[in-house]
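Q: Structure for this?
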Amino acid sequence: MTLTRRDLAAGSGALLAASTLTAPAVLGQAKPRVVVIGGGPGGATAAKYIARDAGGAIAVTLVEEDETYQTCFHSNLYIGGFKPYDALVHRYDTLVSAYGIILARTRATQVDREKKEVVLSDGRRLPYDRLVLSPGIDLKYDSVPGWSQAAEEIMPHGWKPGRQTQLIREKLDAVPDGGTIVMIAPPNPYRCPPGPYERASMFAHVLMQTNRKQAKIVILDPKESFSKQGVFQPDWEKRYGAMIEWLGPKVHDGIKSVDPKTGTVVTGFETYENCAFVNVIPAQMAGQIARDAGLAPAGGYCAIDPATMKSTADPSIFVLGDACNAGDMPKSAFSANNQAKVAAMIVRSELANGPSFPARYLNTCWSLVDTDDAIKVGGRYEPRDGRIAAIDTFISQPGESDEVRKQTQAENTAWYAAITADMFT
Amino acid sequence: MLRKGVRLNDGWRQGRDRESPPAGSALLVAALLAAVPAQAAGDKALGEYLSSECTSCHQLSGRSTGGIPPIIGWPQQQFVAVLEAYGRKERENQVMQTIAARLSRDDMAALAAYFGALTPKP
């Protein structure tokens, strides 16, 4: 039998007797418990840092259904032929063997905030003193008329890792020379702001490499502008001529519908028929478990305290990464990894008398445009006026030298190696 | 003091031995060290927390694939001098300039103490 702090607090007769007779031993077993939901950049990092730095004083359970983590970040490099798929796959073994994290290979279905328990798909309940929620995003399957979950094989999104990523590459490989790819970009806020545009770059790279130079990539965007636009667009022209065409809402006049059966995309301005490949990246929201727990408004993201990463609705719960509204910080792996460290520091200070310091945040997003040609955007962030606010930002400039772009890609490669080591080893 | 326009990070770009601090010429090192007065060791606890920001890009093991240099096991004065050079935008790298501009002298000393005490691993 495993005693929990809740059991002790509840004080059944037997437990009361045990705690009276052998208080030190019983209390010794009742380590503070942290449950982490989601083994991505937010969750894996938080679990590791809490377990590692608490030195055994906190029991950390990571709830993750999948055996491996397949990174969404750098999945565009797989699509572009710069990485094998296997290079995106990481395991949780070291988190268990080196840091004593308990890995619960199952799905968390519900958070019982009143009892402070996580309910698992097999019916078990995990009590927690602090909960770290990092479930990522859910897709809004009804955000593009005519598209649905049933259509995601024919018109893949590729915005969650795994089979969807591979489907994107397969569809790209099947595009004939002269064929048209339509990408429907998502509205803000969404996972990986420069991601759609890096992906379009990778499409063009592959098409050029495989001598399909008459193919066309049309990006239909619900946004008036996009991340790193001032750098992407001149680079596209330089690298790929007129192959990539970006159309904002003033030009396309609204994305009216798609028809997965015929490969048709209808906008207010034009109808694209017989598309070789339609990549629908829909609107997004916080993962279901966070929404169901009442931590996010309908269809939205979880509000957090910028000084702690705690949910504003529940001080026992931290929400990290794509599922939270982190103010000026973009939804990126870098951001989630960074936010996890603030949360871990707060958890240790509250449960294991660790030191506490003011929260600081950092992000950088690299995007590959072509071989040895990468660009970046990033910044520093701090809590200001109840939100995480940008303090200082930077962005690559159009017309940078080949040497600078090559160095930026070398950074991108080194960052991937470092952040995955930081998460999983 | 450092002259403006001196590009200290060229050595990093050329794939320097990862266990060696990426300094330029001996003269430059001397200039860097002279710019940093001797000081008490930084606060390692603070350094440990701040270091978590660095480890998103710089591996704690000291491993490096070349695009981002290893930062462990450096002499502390040199570590601080390099960060200060980024803070003054005398070293090129937008990410590091942005980070260094927000670090206090105590923060830099704390980071230097923390990373300086780590040993590179193969």
